[in-house]
TrEMBL record:
The chain crosses the membrane at residues 16-35, 55-73, 85-104, 110-129, 150-172, 184-205, 262-281, 355-378, 390-413. It holds the Pfam family Nucleoside_tran. PANTHER family: EQUILIBRATIVE NUCLEOSIDE TRANSPORTER (PTHR10332), EQUILIBRATIVE NUCLEOTIDE TRANSPORTER 2 (PTHR10332:SF30). It is found in: Membrane. It is a multi-pass membrane protein. Belongs to the SLC29A/ENT transporter (TC 2.A.57) family. This is Equilibrative nucleoside transporter. It comes from Penstemon davidsonii.
C-alpha cells in the first residue's frame, strides 16, 4: 500500500503547476489572433475600403483549416513537440512582424501594407493549426483538468486582449496619433507574451513529473508522437515502450463516426458565432452614443469576457457529468443558441446598444460553455493515441465551423453595395 501511495504522490507532483502552464499556453494559442481582431478599430482607420475585420478573418481560416486537415490526417506519425514548438514560435515571429510592419510603414494605409497584414494573418492561421490541434490532442490523454485549463486559457485570451486594448487605447486617447501609439504598445506586449509561451512549452511543461507520467502512459499504449517530449523531459523513449504489445487503435474514420454528434456540435457552434463576430459587430451595428468605443471595445470586450465566464462555468460542471448527459445537453443548448443568434438582426435594426451588448454577451457565454463541454467529454474511454487523434479531429471541425462562419458573415453586406 505504501508503495502505491508513493507512486501516486510522485505521479501527481507538478499537477497545479501543469494546470497553470496549460492556462498560459491556451492564452498563447489565441492571444496573437485575438490581438489582430481586437485592434480592428485601428485597422478600420488605416484600411477603411478593405473591410479588414472580415477580410483578415477570411484569409486566416483557409490556412488554418487546410494545414490542420493535413496534420490531423498524419497525426499518428507527427512529432508533437516539434509541431507545437513550430506553432508557438510562428505566433511569436508573426506578432513581431505586425509591429515591424507598422513601424516600417509609419502607420500608413494603402494596399501594400494591407497585403502585408493579410500575409501575417495567414501565418497566424498556420500557427494556430499546429498549436491548437497539437495541444488539444496532447492534453486529451492527460488529466481532464489540463485540457479544461487550456480551453479556459483560450477563452481568457480574448478577455485579456480586450482589457489590454481598452487600457492602451485609453492611455493615448488624448495624444497626437493616440490610436496608433496604443496599437504599437498593444502589439509589443503581445509579442513578449508569445515569447513567454515559447519558453514555457520548450523548457517548463515537458519536465513536470505528472506530464512525463501521462506521456509515458500514452507511449505504453502505442503512441509514437510523444518520443521527443519524453526525451525533453529526461526520459528515454525506449523505457516507455518496454513490454509494448501490438496495440490496435481505432482509425480516424471510426473515431469520427463514433463522435459525429460532437463534431457537428462544434461545427455549428462556431459557424453561428463567426457569422456574427467580429465582422458583423465591427461594421453593421449602427451608430450609438458610445461612438467608436462601442463596436470594437465594448462589444468585443463583452463577448470575450463572458466567453471566459462560460468556459470556466463549464469546467465546474462537465467533469461531474457522464458523457451521454453532456452530449444531450450540448445539442439542446446548441439549438437554443442557433435561434438566439437571429435576434442580432432585429436588435441591430430596431433596438439600442443595451440589447446589442446583452446579445453579444450571450453569444460569448454559450460559445465558451459549449466548447468546453464537447472537448472535455469526447475523449473519455479511449486509449492515449485515440484520444490524441480525436482531439485533432474535433479541432478540425471547430475550424471548419469558423471558416463557414466567416464566409457566411459576408451575407450581412447584401444590399449595402456588395
Amino acid at each position: 500500500i505504501d508503495r502505491y501511495i508513493y507512486h501516486y504522490l510522485s505521479m501527481m507532483q507538478g499537477k497545479y503547476a501543469a494546470i497553470l502552464v496549460c492556462w498560459f499556453l491556451g492564452n498563447g494559442c489565441l492571444f496573437a489572433w485575438n490581438s489582430m481582431t481586437t485592434i480592428g478599430d485601428y485597422y478600420g482607420y488605416l484600411f477603411p475600403r478593405y473591410h479588414p475585420s472580415r477580410v483578415l478573418t477570411l484569409v486566416y481560416q483557409p490556412f488554418a483549416l487546410g494545414t490542420l486537415a493535413i496534420l490531423a490526417y498524419n497525426e499518428a506519425n507527427i512529432n508533437t513537440r516539434r509541431r507545437n514548438l513550430f506553432g508557438y514560435i510562428a505566433f511569436f515571429i508573426s506578432t513581431l512582424l505586425v509591429l515591424i510592419l507598422d513601424l516600417a510603414t509609419s502607420g500608413r494605409g494603402g494596399i501594400g501594407p494591407f497585403i502585408g497584414v493579410c500575409a501575417i494573418s495567414a501565418a497566424f492561421g498556420v500557427a494556430d493549426a499546429h498549436v491548437q490541434g497539437g495541444m488539444i490532442g496532447d492534453l486529451s490523454f492527460m488529466l481532464p483538468e489540463f485540457l479544461q485549463s487550456f480551453l479556459a486559457g483560450l477563452a481568457a485570451s480574448g478577455a485579456l486582449t480586450s482589457a489590454l486594448r481598452l487600457i492602451t487605447k485609453a492611455a493615448f486617447e488624448n495624444s497626437k496619433n493616440g490610436l496608433r501609439k496604443g496599437a504599437i504598445l498593444f502589439f509589443a506586449i503581445s509579442t513578449f507574451f508569445e515569447l513567454g509561451c515559447v519558453l514555457l512549452y520548450a523548457f517548463v511543461f515537458p519536465k513536470l513529473p505528472i506530464v512525463k507520467y501521462y506521456r509515458s502512459k500514452a507511449a505504453s499504449e502505442g503512441s509514437k508522437t510523444v518520443s521527443a517530449d519524453l526525451a525533453a523531459g529526461g526520459l528515454s523513449p525506449g523505457q516507455s515502450y518496454e513490454g509494448l504489445k501490438d496495440m490496435v487503435r481505432l482509425s480516424n474514420k471510426e473515431l469520427l463516426l463514433q463522435n459525429i454528434d460532437y463534431a457537428f456540435d462544434l461545427f455549428m457552434i462556431y459557424a453561428l458565432t463567426l457569422s456574427i463576430f467580429p465582422g458583423f459587430l465591427s461594421e453593421d451595428t449602427g451608430s450609438h452614443s458610445l461612438g467608436g468605443w462601442f463596436k470594437f471595445q465594448v462589444c468585443t470586450c463583452s463577448y470575450c469576457n463572458v466567453q471566459c465566464v462560460g468556459s470556466h462555468r463549464a469546467i465546474c460542471t462537465t467533469y461531474k457529468k457522464r458523457k451521454v448527459e453532456v452530449s444531450e445537453g450540448t445539442s439542446y443548448s446548441n439549438s437554443i443558441t442557433f435561434f438566439a443568434r437571429f435576434a442580432f438582426y432585429f436588435a441591430t435594426k430596431y433596438s439600442d446598444q443595451g440589447w446589442m451588448i446583452m446579445l453579444t454577451s450571450f453569444l460569448g457565454l454559450s460559445n465558451g460553455y459549449l466548447t468546453v463541454c464537447v472537448l472535455t467529454s469526447a475523449p473519455e474511454g479511449y486509449k492515449g493515441p485515440e484520444q490524441n487523434a480525436l482531439g485533432n479531429i474535433l479541432v478540425l471541425f471547430l475550424l471548419g465551423g469558423i471558416f463557414a462562419g466567416v464566409t457566411l458573415d459576408w451575407l450581412w453586406l447584401i444590399g449595402k453595395g456588395w
